[in-house]
Design brief:
Blueprint: E1 5-11, H1 14-26, E2 31-35, E3 44-49, H2 53-70, H3 82-90, H4 97-109, H5 116-131, H6 138-149, H7 153-164, E4 166-168, E5 174-176, H8 180-207
Helix pairs in contact: 2-4, 3-4, 6-7, 6-8, 7-8
Transmembrane segments: 138-163, 188-205
Protein name: DUF2007 domain-containing protein
Keywords: Membrane, Transmembrane, Transmembrane helix
Length: 210
Amino acid sequence: MKRTFTTLKTFPDFDQAKELKRFLCKNEIRSFLNDNHDSPVGDFEVKVITTDLKNATRLLEEKTEQMVGEVAGDYCLYSYSTPQLYDILVNKDVWSDFDFMLAKKILHEKGMPTDADTLYSIKQEKAKNTAKPKTNQIVYILAGYVLALLGGVAGIVIGFLMWNSQKQMPGGISVFSYTDVERKHGRIIFGLGVLIFAIIISLRLRQIPN
């Protein structure tokens, strides 16, 4: 029967992956390293036999819990604010299991909830704030008008970006980066810049002797 392997953990560093492999071997779980450092992914995967995945995950969690229980009180996460600790929980993929568990432990000690509903609400609020257009762009708008009136290409570029600039949301949805009012200014700046630039080019062409 052909054995299938499943990725247990991925690491950006070879030594970290090797350390996990050594830990698994010590606990009689066979694993191997998949080196992707030459690929666009650029990481190191620790793979285990699929039937061993549950046991390997349990052992890894127990090891991490033990490390969390032994961590010194001057570890950097203890100086993090409550919002920063929640940020670790809602961005688990970019933090280690150790930091995730410790952040959860510190929040529990502060009497703060860490249940799935709470984390989901925080994620939704962060997504909502990210989707909000940029505000207070008065200086940027004024600079765009000045540069457009001077006939510079920079004014055209600023106007175009304010008018059309978008940003990608976590769910893959694109939203405009600026408010409707600011986008209207961007469209005016763009049109004004193109007009002034065309007039300047036309005047210069007339000055060329026949």
